[in-house]
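Worked problem 6 (solution included).
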Amino acid sequence: MVNIPSVEVEQLRDMLQSATPPLVLDVREKRENDICSLPGNQLMPMSELQTRFAELPKNQTIVVHCHHGGRSARATAFLQQQGFTKVFNLKGGIHAWSERIDPSVKTYG
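Solution. The predicted structure is:
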C-alpha cells in the first residue's frame, strides 16, 4: 500500500498564505466545481487525470482535493506512482474546508 501524505484544511489555509503557495488540484467533476471551488483551484477531473497528469508541475507542491477526500486520496497515490514527490491529499476535501475554514463555500450532497 502506498503511503498517502495528507494535509488538514488548516494546513492548506496556511500554505496558501505562504510565499510559495501550492497548486490546488480539484479532481471533482466540472459540475461539482461549478457549485464551489477553493482558492487557486485547477480543475482536472479524475476521469481525465491519467491522460492529463503531465500538464502538472513536478517541482511545485500540489494539494489534491475532492468532495470528502476519497477520490483525491486515489489521485494522490496515482500521482506518486508517476513520480510526483510533493503531492498531498486534502483530508476531508472541500466539505471540511467549508465547515472549518470558509463557510461561504457552498456544501452539497
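Discussion: The mean pLDDT is 95.
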